[in-house]
Amino acid sequence: MDRPSKTIEQRPAWFVGAVWDGQDQTDRFLADGVWETDRDRFVDHVKSVLPGDRIAIKSLRNTLEGGLPFDNRGFPVSVMKITAVGKVTENIGDGRRLKVSWKRVEPPREWYFYTNMRTVWKVEPGQGAMPAGASALIRFAFHGEEQDIDWFRNQSLWQDRFGEGQRFAWTRFYSEVADKLLQYRNDRGPLISALLAISRRPDMAFLARDRFSDGTEGDLRDYCPFSTFGCFNRRMADTRRESVAKELASFLKVQEPAPTLNTDEDGIPTLDPRRTWFFSHEKDRNPDDIDALWDLFVNAIKLADVDDEGERAAFMRSYDKVRVGVKGVGIPTLTIGLYWIRPWSFPPLDGNSIKYIKEELRDPTSDEPDGREYLELRDRLLERFESDAPVHSFPELSRSAYRPDKRTTYTVDDVLSEGCFLSRKELEKVLGRLRSRKNLILQGPPGTGKTWLAKKLAFALLGHKDERRVRHLQFHPNLSYEDFVRGHRPVEGRLELTDGPFLKVTAEAQNDPDHDYVIVIEEINRGNPAQIFGEMLTLLEADKRMPEEALALAYSRDEDERVHIPPNVYLIGTMNVADRSLALVDLALRRRFTFVDLVPIFGEPWRQWMQAQGALDDDFLRRVEQRMVALNREIATDQGLGKQFRVGHSYLTVAPDTRIDDPQKWYREIVETEIAPLLREYWFDQTDKADTQERTLLADF
Question: Does this model's pTM top 0.70?
Answer without folding.
Answer: no
